[in-house]
Amino acid sequence: MARFGYQSPLCKQSDEYENSRSMKFLRNTWYVAAWAETLGPGEMLARTFLNEPVVLFRDATGTPHALSDRCPHRFAPLSRGRLVDGNRVKCAYHGLEFSTDGACVHNPHGTAPKAPVRAYPLVERHSILWIWMGDPARADASAIPAYPMLDPDAEAQVSARDGITMAANYELITDNLLDLSHVSFLHEGILGNEDTIAAEIDVKRDGSRLRVGRLMADVPVPGMFDLLYKQDGRRVDLWNVMTWDAPGCMVNDAGVTDPGAPREAGTGIYGHHFLTPETDRTTFYHFAAVRQNPLPAPEGRAEELRDRLTELRRIAFAEQDAPMIEAQQLRRDAAEAEGVAPVLLGIDKGPAAYKRILQELIDADG
Ligand code: FES
Ligand SMILES: [Fe+2]
Prior knowledge:
Layout: H1 15-18, E1 30-35, E2 44-49, E3 52-58, E4 64-68, E5 82-84, E6 88-90, E7 97-98, E8 104-106, E9 119-120, E10 122-125, E11 128-132, E12 162-166, H2 170-178, H3 183-186, E13 200-206, E14 209-220, H4 223-228, E15 235-245, E16 249-257, E17 267-279, E18 282-292, H5 302-338, H6 349-363
Helix pairs in contact: 2-6
The structure holds FE2/S2 (inorganic) cluster and fe (ii) ion.
């Protein structure tokens, strides 16, 4: 089940910050709109991406579509309407009807006006709905990053496809995920501990993809990895290698093995993290973990482990990261207004590197 049960209390306040800084988003790229399972047959889902209201729906054949959630007549949200004959969206206000490509195909008051709504390219792949917010003519589905482990028919053991909305700009959350030194403090016990502070950080760029690795040798096993490994609190070698694809897609190859042993002898996860700006100050954060090299679970315990993994990750992101990042956003806005820049440390080289790539892509986006 995909869940967006956590709605930050700060999201309500975010409007007042929304216009405080003009944000330029990368537009000609694919964003995660939703977990595919979130959108059932015949359902409509209202979401905002990059400050634009969008309605997602599936037609009678199950194909998903995305239209602007703003009727061209007097701007009623189309998501307040309903689907007619499985493939037309009917505005609830005065009854205009729109086809899946956004054309106005029926006006109960006379001739249908030539007043289309914008249709956004939408592709279902790897159990995700991907939306293109830029020029539709440039939408190339082959540019969607490959996450085959999340395919619905993949053999891999996957945690719940989960998510939260965070009252912060997506770049602050990206900073958080590309600087995993914070796990020693903010997620102490679950994902890191004091002994995991000292780590070699390795940053590698490959085209517009970035890898940020942290290796921690012979440290006490953090709680989540102990659960997946031998559940005996032993010392381990711990690795995190985060791969970032613009603008906000990340996979964390993370695991533990006995000190000095090869990684293949250990176990871990591929933590998938997908960030999509809702507004300048709010972000949809989708996440799911895929087990890597899982140890055989005792009879009947595989489900329990999966649920516990889901729960621990949700605690880490919703209860530990979110409050910190949201508070940080407010302080950062105040500091920006004062013209004060952040002081950077050596641990910030991952975030610094992705910002350079993202800026290059935004400059070239047109
Ligand atoms: S606002 Fe949609 S038909 Fe009038
Ligand atoms: Fe975190």
